[in-house]
Amino acid sequence: MHEMAMCDAIVAAALRRAAGRRLTGMRVRIGGHAVDREVIAQGIRLAASGTTAEGAAVDLIICPMSMSCGDCGHAGLVTDHVAMVACPACGGLDVEVMGNEDVLLESITVATDDARQMATR
Q1: Does one domain contain both 18 and 40?
Q2: Are residues 1 and 58 located together in one domain of the fold?
Q3: Which of 2, 5, 55, 101 has its CA 20 to 30 A from that of 46?
Q4: Are 103 and 67 in contact (CB under 8 A)?
C-alpha cells in the first residue's frame, strides 16, 4: 500500500474510534515491507491536519519481515524491498520471506473534558 494512503487510513480509523473527541495520541504497529519511520510519522501528521487528530502524538512500532535464502542459508530481517526477492548475501533468488503485512491501530488517546469529569464526581 502506498505510504500516504496507509497514513490516511490510519487517521480515518483513529478518528472513527475517537467518535468526535479530540485525539491526542495513537499507537500503530506496522508489519511487512521496510518503511521509513519518519516518512510514516510525517504522513500521519499530514493526514491528521485540520482534523480533531491534528497534533496527536504518534507511537510507531515497526515490525519488519524476515527472510532466508535457500541458496546460501543466509537469514535476516528485510531491510529493503530488494531483500524480498534476492538474497543480500549471495544474490540468489531462492528467498523465503516470513512475517505479516498488517497495519494495526493498537490504541488511541483522547482528550478528556476536566470540567465534565469534576462535575460527575
Answers
A1: yes
A2: yes
A3: 101
A4: no
Residue 62 C-alpha cell reads as 515497526
Q: How far is CA 102 from CA 32, 39, 73, 75, 97, in A?
A: 7, 18, 27, 22, 15
Regarding whether 83 and 72 lie in a shared domain, the answer is yes
Q: Which amino acid is present at 87?
A: C
Q: SS3 for 100?
A: coil
DSSP class of residue 34 equals -
- Tell me which of 114 and 28 has the higher pLDDT: 28
pTM: 0.78
- For residue 94, is pLDDT > 60? yes
pLDDT computed for residue 104 by the predictor:
94
DSSP for 7-32 reads HHHHHHHHHHHHTTSPEEEEEEEEEE
